[in-house]
UniProtKB/TrEMBL annotation:
This is Nucleotidyltransferase. Coiled coil: none annotated. Residues 7-144 form the Nucleotidyl transferase domain. Pfam families: NTP_transferase. It comes from Candidatus Mediterraneibacter pullicola.
Amino acid sequence: MSKATLVIMAAGIGSRFGGGVKQLAPVGPNGEIIMDYSIYDAIEAGFDKVVFVIRKDLEKDFKEIIGNRIEKQVETSYVYQELDDIPAAYKEKFPERTKPWGTGQAVLCCKDVVDSPFLVINADDYYGKSAYREAYIYLTSLKDTGKIQACMIGFILENTLSDNGGVTRGLCTVDEGGMLTGIVETHNIEKDRGLAVIREDDGKKRTIHAGSQVSMNMWGLTPDFFGILETGFEAFLKETSSEDLKAEYLLPTIIGDLLQEGKISVKVLKSEDQWFGVTYKEDRESVMNSVRALITDGLYPEKLYS
């Protein structure tokens, strides 16, 4: 069987979730969290290893709530995304920084434990079964082309918005052959009377096409991508002002730049399933109802693991 790893980014502080750790909020009938369903789907699709990217201060709670359970189902590793996990030359440059450096840093943390093609996901997003099947087939069928290869699971914007506030999505452009040609990380996208709008910093709203294809940080990558991340992260830290406390090294931006430079090809795979996730505390009830409906429809057993 071909090998592929699932990398779950779970180090987010979850500030919009009312100060709690949103990735660990129960949504299933037996205390399951969204990650349980993601891992169940990934194993079913063929993935044979799971890597959790967490913060060191979450480790005890994380293992009690999900890690110890998953270790009995599949090979499991942990890596730690920390604020000071940066090249030594920059450790004193950002004295007032309080949070890690974004999804690019999160994936880079995995370089010593991932040696096969891998799929990156957010801990607090439910992507659906077909997404994992499509990604596994792609990642285990790669042929050497001389260029870095990747895939992205594409979702329809209107299916990924929250009823409870603005979200960040990677707005994508895709050519007729299903290849990604551009991506822009876009903040503060909201629902507004059936439309999708971007709330600008000045408070004004700009309408965007609700049927736009977006990235939900579900990326299929290969180990040679770690070298790109490592070089890029150092350049990012060098260019970032010490006064910029919110700058993040983000996968959509990194991949967008590589596309413009012609260094990567990204196949966009479409998911047939409905996405849902927990961005705000108020989202949890809706997610619990969605999980219950999936169980009722027979997609999942009442209890995932015996």
